[in-house]
Amino acid sequence: MVEPFFCAEESNTAGEDLIGCAVMAQFYVLVECPPPWSANAFHSNQIPDNLRTLVQALKQDKRTIRPLLIHRDRRQEPCTSVIILRQQDGVSFGYSKQEFQVSSLKEVAPLVSDYFNECHTHEPIGTDTRDILVCTHGSHDKCCAKYGQSFYRQAIATVAQLALNPDVRVWQASHIGGHRFAPTAIDFPEGRYYGRLDQDSFTAILTRSGNTQCFNHVYRGWGILPWAAQVLERALLLKYGWDWFKYGIVGRVIDHNEDESWNRVEITLVRADHTSEVYQADVVIDDNKKLHLRGSCGNTESYAVPQYAVKYLTKLAASAIP
Fold first, then answer.
1. Count of alpha carbons within 13 Å of 82, Cβ hemisphere only?
2. Transmembrane segments in this chain: where (predicted)?
C-alpha cells in the first residue's frame, strides 16, 4: 500500500528553509464567511455574484490587493466583518487596519468598492486587535486541513491560556500560500508570515519572549518587503532579538542579476528617537544546500528548490531621521 504524500512532511524532512516566501501585497481585504470553502474560495456557494465580480476586478487593479475569506468561532452575530489592511508608506511597521461591519455578504462588494474609490460612505468600527490568520483551507491543499485545522484549535486555546483575549483574535483563513509549510499563519497588522508553527513557537511570537532562534525554523518573512529583503530582515531580527519589533523598517533590492541568484539588498531600521542604521548585504543562492522537492501535494515530479544565504553583511550608517 502506497503511503499518502504530504508536501509539508517532505519539506520539513528535507530541512527546506521557509524564509523569503511571504507574499508582498499593498492591501488585504478580509471577508468573514463561514466554511466550507471551495478550492477557489471566492467560488464557494455562499459567495454572492457581486462579490465574485469584484474579486476579479481587484485582480486587475494596478495595486496589489489580496482578498481572503476568514472565519472564527464565536456566537452567531447578525453581522459580517470586513477588515481592510493597507501597507504603510515610507518607514513602515506593517499595515494600517480598518474594520467594517455589514449585515450580509451581499453588502461586502459595495463597501469594498467604495473604499478603493475613496468614497468614505461606511464608518469603520473601533478596533485595535492583533489578528492571527491560520490557513485551514483543506479543499485547496490537504496539508492545510491536516495541520492547519488542528493548529487553529490549539492556537485559540493558547491565546486563552495566555489571557490575551480579546486583544488577540485567531481566524481561520482561506489559502495564504506556502501550504508545504503548514501550519501557516499571517500576523496582522504587521503582516509577518509564519509556517511549521507549534505551540512553543506560537507562544514566543505572541508574547515576544524566549529564544528568537525559533525564527530560523518558522519565519517565512515580512510581507512588506521584497523576497530577497525578507532574507536579510530575518538575519537582522536574529541579530537584534525582540527589540527588532520596535523598529520601523524601509527595505529595498538595490540590484540583482537576471535569475536573481544574486541580490544586493538594503534595509534601514528607524528607532522611536528617529535615529537609524542602514545595512547592506548580498542575498545569494546557497550552493551548499541543494534541494529537489515535489513542493505541492498535487505534483508528481520534483524540481530544484533554491535556498539562500546572506553574505557580506555591512553596517553603512547611523544617522538621525528628520
1. 24
2. none
The helix, strand and coil proportions of the chain, stated in percent and rounded to the nearest 5, come to 30, 30, 40
Distance, CA of 143 to CA of 263 (rounded, Å): 32
Give Cβ neighbours of residue 75 (< 8 Å, ≥ 6 apart).
none
* CA distances to 36, 271, 279 from 239, in Å: 42, 15, 12
38-90 per-position pLDDT tens digit: 999 999 999 999 999 999 999 999 999 999 999 998 766 678 999 999 999 99
User: Strand, helix or coil at 53?
Assistant: helix
Q: Is the whole model's pTM more than 0.85, yes or no?
A: yes
Q: Tell me the per-residue pLDDT of 248-297, one tens digit each, with 9 for 90 and over.
A: 999 999 999 999 999 999 999 999 999 999 999 999 999 889 899 988 88
Rg (CA), the chain: 20
